[in-house]
Amino acid sequence: MAALRLAGVRLVREGTAILDGGDWTVDDGGRWIVLGANGSGKTSLVRIASLYLHPSTGTVEVLGRQLGRVDVRQHRRRIGVVSASFADLLRPALTATEVVMTVKYAALEPWWHTYDDDDRTRAVHLLDRFGCAALAEHPFTTLSSGERQRVQLARTLMTDPGLLLLDEPTAGLDLGGREDLVQRLAALARDPRTPPTILVTHHVDEIPPG
Known about the structure:
By secondary structure, the chain is of the alpha/beta class. It has one domain (about 5-205): P-loop containing nucleotide triphosphate hydrolases (Rossmann fold). About 30% of the residues lie in helices and about 25% in strands. Strands 2-1-4-5 form a 4-stranded antiparallel sheet, covered by helices on one side. The protein has a 4-stranded parallel sheet with strand order 3-8-7-6, sandwiched between helices. The two termini are about 20 Å apart.
């Protein structure tokens, strides 16, 4: 089963074709880079692949289910997404552990769902994997840009997703933070347990090995 299959995807906004005639298949185990300049439609492509945006025409199939014929609220739990814009949606007082843990229900807040000790333990374990265990109880807003991105990476793996979408994960980082994150992304790509992964960037030097 392909992790992602787009057929004839076209996206039009105010008479302008943002994407036009996109055909793309990401097989199980695939590692893809989407490379392009600002404004070339990369983020729109990720939003379609993550089931947050419907194309104007074409077919979108993610992990064997077709957009328009699946409950996206449930199916999105199987897709791990890192986006620079995601941090703006989070309440500043949430701890790093809560940011990771709430993805279990594709939520941004812990209030409306029940979590147990196993959920919290798994969240802290994933934070540790990305060098953030010491930040587990720190408010997300107090973390550096690089730390926030690593917390987001930990969040993507909380539900054992079938597809990872990393939309410019190094955006806004200083040189040290960028180099650290690229190394962690390289380790993630080499790990055979990592699901099919798509990384979006417009800088060739931010493409990790693997």
